[in-house]
Design goal:
By secondary structure, the chain is an alpha/beta fold. The protein is built from seven helices and eleven strands. Helices cover about 30% and strands about 25% of the residues. It has a six-stranded parallel β-sheet with strand order 2-1-3-4-5-11, with helices on both faces. It has a five-stranded mixed β-sheet with strand order 7-8-6-9-10, covered by helices on one side. A hairpin with a 4-residue loop joins strand 9 and strand 10. The longest helix is centred in the middle third of the chain and has 17 residues. It is elongated and about 60 Å long.
């Protein structure tokens, strides 16, 4: 498979390593200084593009990839307000896209566990739920996309919750607080706490390195090849959330 890397930072380099180990070919490495691929309306000879950039660049990158008809894997976060429009663009151009806040197999198992626990804890209103996420200091968006997905997998199952907010403690009883911390050299830790006066119940995912994200991105690339439409990382990993 011929893979284009749109974003060639730390994550891009790890994805490259995993892709080569699995017998794939990296045919393009793009960063903010190399935007030449956007200057032509001719489709490049890429089987799939993997986009890991930043909130400022991702939407423009996806628009170009979709219009060129290139199946795309997007691991950038901080752009999901545009998700519906991008999905419509995929349909209009009969392209393909998998976008995920986190491509790690372990994190997506964590999401499934999180939903189960939320259903269970809704029967015990003495517990207040909160989320804490820790990432490296280079991460621009806060809270993380993974933390937002975690919150969105809790709120529908807790009767008194309507939305999430950024902060250590909730300012209103109907809001789920997400505390976002930025520390040096932290791949990512997400913790959900249910606290009562008596005790605390916690579930957590801690990334030891970025390899898990890269493996998930490559598995998604292999999955999407030859397909059209919008898919999820749950489709790739065959994880049933409900």
């Amino acid at each position: 498979m011929k893979i284009a890397l749109i974003g060639y930072g730390k994550m891009g380099k790890i994805i490259e390593k995993i892709a080569l180990e699995r017998g794939h070919e990296i045919v393009f490495r793009g960063n903010s200084a190399n935007q030449s691929w956007k200057e032509s309306n001719t489709r490049p000879d890429w089987d799939v593009a993997i986009e890991f950039t930043n909130p400022d660049a991702v939407v423009d990158n996806l628009e170009h990839l979709i219009r060129l008809g290139i199946p795309s894997i997007c691991g950038s976060t901080g752009w999901y307000a545009e998700y519906e429009r991008i999905s419509n663009l995929v349909a209009a151009h009969q392209s393909a896209l998998i976008a995920a806040s986190n491509f790690s197999v372990g994190v997506n198992l964590f999401f499934a566990i999180n939903r189960y626990v939320a259903r269970l804890m809704n029967q015990h209103p003495d517990y207040n739920v909160s989320i804490q996420e820790i990432h490296h200091t280079e991460k621009k968006d806060a809270p993380s996309g993974t933390a937002i997905t975690t919150a969105e997998n809790i709120i529908p199952f807790i009767d008194h919750l309507d939305a999430w907010e950024l902060g250590e403690k909730a300012t209103q009883p109907n809001l789920l607080p997400i505390e976002a911390l930025r520390l040096p050299n932290v791949p990512g830790t997400h913790t959900v706490d249910y606290r009562s006066e008596i005790d605390t119940i916690s579930i957590a995912h801690e990334a030891n390195n970025r390899t898990g994200f890269a493996i998930g991105a490559i598995l998604s690339s292999e999955f999407i090849l030859g397909k059209k439409g919008i898919f999820t990382i749950q489709d790739v990993l065959n994880i049933q959330l409900d």
